[in-house]
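Following the same procedure, sequence and fold were stored together, as reproduced here:

>
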Amino acid sequence: MEVLGAAASVIAVIQISAEVFDICRKYYIEVKDARKDIQKLRDEMTSLQDVLVNVADLADTPGSEKLAVLRLLEKPDGPLKLCEKALTTLLEKLQSGSGKEKMRQFGIRALKWPFNNKEVMSIIAMIGRYKATFSLALNADQM
């Protein structure tokens, strides 16, 4: 594994999570009936980003190419790739729910939040599992 590859993988996941956060911000402003769920999802995205920034910092440290934990995180079927895939799917679902072009045809300005509370809790739990995995990887490096 090349150090730049690990850092690039982490940065890709951070960028997707930032896009999810940004879309959630737009929903929060325009959707009144799901604000609590949107805020919970935004908070979890921020928390995930914080952990991922620490992983990116670890990948950028001298000698990090020797860290087995980074190689495990970056495997093709590893947590970084799986998290990236899950966040990309989430982003696509959020983007599909923000089809303002269709709404403008009918003179409707508000967005429709594409998830119910149970789905949001499931998404937050999934993000929490990735966050825990990345945190454990950081802790394993400290030992």
Notes: The chain has a mean pLDDT of 86. The chain has one domain: 3-142. Helices lie at 3-30, 35-59, 68-74, 79-97, 100-105, 117-142. Residues 17 and 45 are 6 Å apart (CA to CA).
